[in-house]
Design goal:
single chain, about 400 residues, alpha/beta, four-stranded parallel sheet, three-stranded parallel sheet, 16 helices, about 10% strand
Length: about 400
Amino acid sequence: MRIIDVDAHVHEPVDWLEVPDPAIAAELGPPARFIDIADGLFGVGNPAVSQLPDAQRPATAWDTVLPGFVRHLEMTDERQPSFQKDMAGDPVCDPVARLKVCDAEGIEIQFLNPSFLVNPIVQAARARRGHLIPKIRKAWNRWAMDVVHGHTDRLMPVAQVDFNDIPGTIAEMTRMRTLGARGFSLGESPVGIGRTAADGRAAIGRSITHPDFEPIWSAAEDLGMAAIAHVGFGRERIQFGWANNGASDLSTYSLLGQVIAPQLGPQLLLAALAYDGVLERHPKLTVVVEEVGITWLPHLLYVIDHAVGRASRPLLADGEFRPDFAGSAYRLPLKPSDYLRRQVTVTPLVVNELLLPVLQQVPPEMLCFSSDYPHVEGTASAVAICERQLKDCAPGVRETFYGSLAGRIGL
């Protein structure tokens, strides 16, 4: 039985950028540790905090990070190596040591997402050098491929691309595929949020289902590369009014943002891919959604069909006619859920979620294995955790869960 780990991570040393692009590293100055930039990623930086009652206004963004998550961030920072020279023998960044961990777990292939690529990206943004960010992504691609050189049959970095540059994205996908990559990161959806339009107003962005992006999906099919939406790809935010609750801090708002909001992004992404016909036009495109959980998936499969009048629930019928939302607006031949079943797979958070409740409601090929190793929420014993739950499943379910991605993209 093949075990494909579709979401593992490499832990880049703090000074990683100095190797693939010393010029950018010098321009940014001393490299930041993860803890130096974490408040900007996970704290509340909304300007509307100035409108809250005095007692509720945070002094810094760190004051809005939940106490339990502060410890999580500290542990993450502690696991980042400091220097390139110390990588040898460390399984979080050394391929030979990493493969020993994989062999002990029975894992054949790992897709490697970045962990601390975000550090220099945030540094560049804070220094108002946004033009460097696409270059930093390309530098990570070079660095990661150099790190796993000679082992790309089993360790496969996920190509980091910039959907704002469509020709550049296709060129980078092609280059990385030649080197051994089999997945590329989905850009934020909608693409271009935060940019300024030609008339000076804030740009509204473009859905990744916009016709402009068709060449990327065609390239993915031709190259046999999976489109990977890892946690953090979405930019959906809850209304800040939820923070104005009369409390003495922003704990509830932060909790809503950490726990509830992340499940919105994947549902919007997948529904748009189905409704706008991207999956119909590109039947060989495979989409992998990672580290946003799986409990929302059965709900999504039902509501996207219900919205277009394709849901079948005979026990609920009362003989009355009721119009669906879409009416004649939806004209694709398959049910929306059929496209997702055919082309989408989602990873569970192994240490947080039980598999069986969802496996009883969705086709097994819609779930796939990931360890998230070596992150705090990841585990080197992810296979054992899954095995305890899958041992009594119907024949073929285990094999599908662990290895279905291989068949989807021809691994």
